């Protein structure tokens, strides 16, 4: 019989050792050391035995630790220490303790395991705390006493231990939770092992464990009580297993749990009461299962839940009131289910919700007012549903909305007032619908918007004022439509535009002066249009050669005339842009905005746009500097030209003085085109 | 800028999507969780595997994306990204986690560009080659003062100075007629490298990688081979001298593809250094011996470049989103570069693939070999080339072909057996050995503080 005595422990440390030991004793798993004076308290608040989940207390949790400690003192306990201070009692302690397994690696310290006295009684005393706070433990054995301090905890051979508290087990042949997990572990990982079930009490008990993760194992069963005795556990993840179901008492005894993931298992349904004791949960991930139905009251205890992920399941409907208790919810993901309709008040109480993901469902319509009350919503994903029409007030009240995707629906038209209530939108996608036209002023309210995506629709023409009001827009995607012409002035109200997608339309040309208001524009998608390389293309060609980054624009080719067919636009010279004589005289002024003329030199390196009273825009492509001459301050470039246009000629002389390298080679403007 | 550069028109297809991985630094445990989370979100197009373990036993995890994960499809090239080889250069690690999440989300969203990429390419992503060093650096935290803390592995070895030195062999034999490709390893190489290096060498020997990038930090530039300068005198005096490969123009284009798709790399002035177009030949920056980049080129079919991505090796979390936005297009565009040049099957008269057949391009003295199924990939710039396929026991075959700017040209070879019948020898690319013991050379490790790749 060995009696163990502890002196000089701090309260919390004593507590964890005692609690660990006591509980094991009660479970009948005690080991050879066992002679305990005193006894464990009958029950610990927040931790019960038996399958009945503990109902949540909405007042702050009872400080059970403190109570327990007082009880201990009352008993005047002589503290027993398990022979190894381990998470799990070991039946083969001798081999575990005396094997210096080669794959058993301590990163920082390779302490020798301590054996005392006769070889038959290996004793390793491990402080259940970080090594920086040393504990002095006297072990009183029949064979003598020993002073032990600051030894690294043992690590079971199939695992690796880091920082003395993170345990990582990824041995693919591991079929059971290994014996000898260190008692002070804070994180415990099982990755791609052969574990097929977690038995009740298999993990023993620990007050230090805060994170327990099972990734891609073969777990098919979690016994009720598998996670008992882990009062500090804050994060539990069991994902990537063939697990078909979990028992309703699974989370009982985990009073500190804030993050729980059951993603990518094979769970069909959740039983009522599963979260009854999980009232501190903040993050719940149930993604990637086969859940087809949820009990209406299942989320009732989750007042503090901030993120709920139910994506990639097979939910066909949301029961009335399912989400109503989740008043603290910030992110709700219901993507990739089979929801065909939504209850009108489904989200009514979620006043703090910032993100709502409903993409990848089968929603054909949105009930009136379904988003009412979501004043905090910033992101709404409705892409890849079957929405055929939207009510004018569908998004009314979403005054904080910044991201809205309606991509991949069946919208043929939009109500003119659709975005009246969402003035804060930054990103709007309407791609992959069946839009044939845009109602006048539909975007007029979106002065903050940065990107607008209208690609893959059936737009055939756009009114000149279609994008008025979008003064902050930097990206406009109009690719993959049926556009055969664009009105002059279409982009005049978009001073910040940097990226424009026009690819895959039926555009033979663009109006002269089309980009004159878009000084930030650097990327234009032009490919797959039937560009007519005649004199009316001069404006676009000039713009490309001066402002465009050739890396981004080489895939546009001439479709006509026959002599230039297949030629990349960037390789066409202005001299090649011919028109039949009368055609050229007629056509070009028509293409310019009324009263406007674009003058250029034959090489196409210099363009000036003028109207009757003034000239607004001069663009000049500098020749590369001679190799010997560094483009430093003081570099000069001058020239004089006579420019021509259908309106007449213009004489221009230019002097450019470089002030620094960044002036002569601005980003995006290649020095040698 | 050369007109031949592949267009980045795809840039227009990348739309704003949700950032599902939050912009935080991931410790080893969190990185593992993140990798498996992506794998479970895209189970049909992804796979997580480990190529081995670090000194301290951490797994070297790789996330693979492909329409058939785990399977090499003939004529579908293999790509890899390797991050965090220096434990304290952490941006690559986080960018690769973001990229993984991004590819998964875009695929699920039905993005044409990413769907095509995953169907045509097998992409291997290793966010951390030095997980032990990372933990050391992470304990010190961002903007750390100890500039090199965590750079090396747990044995204190710089992994980018730990690969077998094949340059020396090549520089000495190359002056006569020696090979500059598939150079055999010294007999005792396994005992001379670290566990992480060993795992990577075995990894790149068991997949027929075609293109890759190694993500570092401490500068902003795309660096291409050779890293080790050829002139011994200059090396010892830390002089720098441009040391191009026979594929120099191609490497420049690959590097430019990244720098021009990057938010600011192409501007040249970054972190107090200037690199024209944001690219540099490694040796012309500073000479580096036993690096991974040169090893890829000299031992395998893989063309690797080294990307220096941030001035601050351990940027604060608030910078991560901006960095991701600056690198996202570049990371995708660089993978797309794998689809150029020529590729095809080398088979015998019975249409059985011939593994290890040698593909030579006239005028470029760097051969590639066919993979286990007989398929080969040769990255080339647009132009007309004379290409010869040869294999032991077969008569060589030569064809002339034209390579365009977009898709790779398909050039198949069917080889006739030699008149003198010899049994065709299967060369397994990972098991080549040679009896010659190579000269070992001690090269000073440190060069310039702050810009070591």
TrEMBL record, chain A:
This is Carboxypeptidase N subunit 2. The lineage of its organism: Eukaryota, Metazoa, Chordata, Craniata, Vertebrata. It comes from the Eukaryota. The keyword Calcium does not apply. It holds the Pfam family LRR_8. InterPro entries: Cys-rich_flank_reg_C, Leu-rich_rpt, Leu-rich_rpt_typical-subtyp, LRR_dom_sf, LRR_TM_domain-containing, LRRNT. The keyword Protein biosynthesis does not apply. SUPFAM superfamilies: L domain-like (SSF52058). Residues 154-187 form the LRRNT domain. Residues 529-580 form the LRRCT domain. Keywords: Glycoprotein, Leucine-rich repeat, Repeat, Signal. GO terms for cellular component: plasma membrane. Signal peptide: none annotated.
TrEMBL record, chain B:
GO terms for molecular function: metallocarboxypeptidase activity; zinc ion binding. Residues 1-20 form the signal peptide. Residues 24-338 form the Peptidase M14 domain. Its cofactor is Zn(2+). The active site is at 308 (proton donor/acceptor). Keywords: Carboxypeptidase, Disulfide bond, Glycoprotein, Hydrolase, Metal-binding, Metalloprotease, Protease, Secreted, Signal, Zinc. Residues 418-453 are annotated as: Disordered. It catalyses: Release of a C-terminal basic amino acid, preferentially lysine. InterPro entries: CarboxyPept-like_regulatory, CARBOXYPEPT_ZN_1, CARBOXYPEPT_ZN_2, M14_CPN, Peptidase_M14, Peptidase_M14_domain. GO terms for cellular component: extracellular space. Residues 438-453 have a biased composition (Basic residues). Its EC number is 3.4.17.3. It is found in: Secreted, Extracellular space. One of its GO terms (biological process) is protein processing. Residues 418-428 have a biased composition (Basic and acidic residues). It is an enzyme of class 3 (hydrolase). It holds the Pfam family Peptidase_M14. Protects the body from potent vasoactive and inflammatory peptides containing C-terminal Arg or Lys (such as kinins or anaphylatoxins) which are released into the circulation. Tetramer of two catalytic chains and two glycosylated inactive chains. Belongs to the peptidase M14 family. This is Carboxypeptidase N catalytic chain.
């Amino acid at each position: 019989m060995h009696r163990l005595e502890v002196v000089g422990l701090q309260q919390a440390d004593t507590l964890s050792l005692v609690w660990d030991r006591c509980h094991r004793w009660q479970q009948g798993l005690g080991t050879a050391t066992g002679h305990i004076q005193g006894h464990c308290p009958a029950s610990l608040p927040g931790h019960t035995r038996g399958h009945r989940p503990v109902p949540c207390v909405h007042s702050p949790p009872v400080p059970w630790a403190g109570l327990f400690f007082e009880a201990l003192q009352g008993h005047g306990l002589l503290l027993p220490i398990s022979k190894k201070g381990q998470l799990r009692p070991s039946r083969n302690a001798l081999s575990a303790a005396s094997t210096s397994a080669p794959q058993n690696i301590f990163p920082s310290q390779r302490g020798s395991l301590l054996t005392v006295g006769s070889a038959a009684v290996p004793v390793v005393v491990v402080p259940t705390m970080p090594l920086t706070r040393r504990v002095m433990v006297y072990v009183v054995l029949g064979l003598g006493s020993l002073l032990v301090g600051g030894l690294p905890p043992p690590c079971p051979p199939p695992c690796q231990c880091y920082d003395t508290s993170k345990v990582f087990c990824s041995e693919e042949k591991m079929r059971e939770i290994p014996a000898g997990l260190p008692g002070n572990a804070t994180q415990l990982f099982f990755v791609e092992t052969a574990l097929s079930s977690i038995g009740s009490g298999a993990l023993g008990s620990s007050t230090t464990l805060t994170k327990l993760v099972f990734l891609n194992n073969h777990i098919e069963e979690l016994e009720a009580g598998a996670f008992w005795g882990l009062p500090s556990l804050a994060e539990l993840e069991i994902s990537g297993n063939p697990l078909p179901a979990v028992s309703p008492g699974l989370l009982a005894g985990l009073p500190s749990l804030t993050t729980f993931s059951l993603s990518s298992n094979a769970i069909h349904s959740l039983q009522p009461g599963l979260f009854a004791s999980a009232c501190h949960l903040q993050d719940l991930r149930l993604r990637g299962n086969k859940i087809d139905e949820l009990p209406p009251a299942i989320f009732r205890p989750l007042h503090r839940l901030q993120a709920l992920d139910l994506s990639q399941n097979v939910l066909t409907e949301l029961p009335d009131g399912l989400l109503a208790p989740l008043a603290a919810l910030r992110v709700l993901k219901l993507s990739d289910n089979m929801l065909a309709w939504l209850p009108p008040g489904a989200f009514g109480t979620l006043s703090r919700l910032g993100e709502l993901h409903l993409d990848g469902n089968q929603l054909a319509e949105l009930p009136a007012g379904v988003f009412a009350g979501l004043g905090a919503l910033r992101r709404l994903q409705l892409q890849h549903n079957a929405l055929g029409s939207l009510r004018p007030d569908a998004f009314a009240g979403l005054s904080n909305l910044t991201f809205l995707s309606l991509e991949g629906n069946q919208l043929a038209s939009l109500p003119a007032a659709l975005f009246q209530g969402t003035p804060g939108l930054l990103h709007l996608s309407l791609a992959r619908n069946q839009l044939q036209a845009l109602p006048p002023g539909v975007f007029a309210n979106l002065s903050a918007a940065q990107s607008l995506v209208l690609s893959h629709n059936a737009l055939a023409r756009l009114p000149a004022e279609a994008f008025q009001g979008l003064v902050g827009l930097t990206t406009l995607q109009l690719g993959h439509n049926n556009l055969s012409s664009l009105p002059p002035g279409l982009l005049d109200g978009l001073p910040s535009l940097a990226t424009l997608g026009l690819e895959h339309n039926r555009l033979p040309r663009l109006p002269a002066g089309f980009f004159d208001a878009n000084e930030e524009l650097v990327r234009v998608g032009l490919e797959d249009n039937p560009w007519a390389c005649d004199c009316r293309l001069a404006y676009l060609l000039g713009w490309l050669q001066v402002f465009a980054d050739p890396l981004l624009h080489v895939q546009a080719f001439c479709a006509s005339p026959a002599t230039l067919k297949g030629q990349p636009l960037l390789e066409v010279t202005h001299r090649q842009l011919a028109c039949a004589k009368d055609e050229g005289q007629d056509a070009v002024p028509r293409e310019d905005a009324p009263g406007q003329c674009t003058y250029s030199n034959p090489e196409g390196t210099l363009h000036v746009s003028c109207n009757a009273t003034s000239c607004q825009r001069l663009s000049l492509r500098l020749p590369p500097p001679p190799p010997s001459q560094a483009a430093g301050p003081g570099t000069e470039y001058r020239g004089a030209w006579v420019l021509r246009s259908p309106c007449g000629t213009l004489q221009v002389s230019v002097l450019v003085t470089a002030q620094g390298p960044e002036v002569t080679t601005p980003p995006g403007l290649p020095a040698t085109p | 800028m050369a007109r031949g550069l592949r267009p980045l028109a795809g840039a227009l297809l990348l739309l704003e999507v949700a950032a599902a991985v939050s912009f935080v630094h991931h410790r080893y445990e969190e990185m593992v969780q993140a990798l498996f989370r992506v794998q479970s979100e895209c189970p049909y197009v992804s796979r997580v595997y480990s190529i081995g373990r670090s000194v301290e036993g951490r797994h070297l995890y790789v996330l693979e994306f492909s329409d058939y994960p785990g399977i090499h499809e003939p004529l579908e090239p293999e790509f890899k990204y390797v991050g965090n080889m220096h434990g304290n250069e952490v941006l690559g690690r986080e960018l690769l986690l973001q990229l993984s999440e991004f590819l998964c989300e875009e695929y699920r969203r039905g993005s044409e560009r990413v769907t095509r990429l995953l169907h045509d390419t097998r992409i291997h992503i290793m966010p951390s080659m030095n997980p032990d060093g990372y933990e050391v650096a992470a304990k010190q935290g961002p903007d750390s003062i100890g500039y090199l803390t965590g750079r090396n592995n747990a044995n204190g070895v710089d992994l980018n100075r730990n690969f077998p030195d094949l340059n020396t062999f090549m520089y000495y034999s190359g002056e006569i007629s020696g090979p500059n490709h598939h150079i055999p390893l010294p007999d005792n190489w396994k005992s001379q490298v670290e566990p992480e290096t060993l795992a990577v060498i075995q990894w790149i020997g068991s997949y027929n990688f075609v293109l890759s990038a190694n993500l570092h930090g401490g500068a902003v530039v795309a660096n291409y081979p050779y890293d080790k300068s050829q002139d011994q005198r200059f090396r010892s005096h830390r002089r720098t001298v441009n040391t191009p490969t026979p594929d120099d123009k191609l490497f420049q284009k690959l590097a430019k593809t990244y720098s021009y798709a990057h938010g600011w790399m192409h501007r040249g002035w970054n972190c107090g250094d200037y690199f024209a177009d944001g690219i540099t030949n490694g040796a012309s920056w500073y000479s580096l011996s036993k690096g991974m980049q040169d090893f890829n080129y000299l031992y395998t079919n893989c063309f690797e470049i080294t990307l220096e991505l941030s001035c601050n090796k351990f940027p604060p979390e608030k910078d991560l989103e901006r960095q991701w936005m600056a690198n996202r297009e570049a990371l995708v565009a660089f993978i797309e570069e794998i689809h150029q040049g020529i590729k095809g099957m080398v088979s015998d008269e019975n249409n059985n693939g011939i593994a290890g057949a040698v593909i030579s391009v006239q005028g470029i003295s760097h051969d590639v070999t066919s993979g286990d199924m007989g398929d080969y990939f040769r990255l080339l710039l647009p132009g007309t080339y004379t290409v010869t396929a040869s294999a032991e026991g077969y008569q060589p075959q030569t064809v002339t072909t034209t390579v365009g700017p977009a898709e790779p040209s398909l050039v198949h070879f069917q080889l006739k057996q030699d008149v003198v019948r010899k049994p065709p020898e299967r060369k397994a690319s990972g098991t080549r050995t040679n009896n010659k013991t190579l000269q070992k050379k001690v090269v000073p490790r440190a060069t310039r503080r702050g810009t070591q790749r």
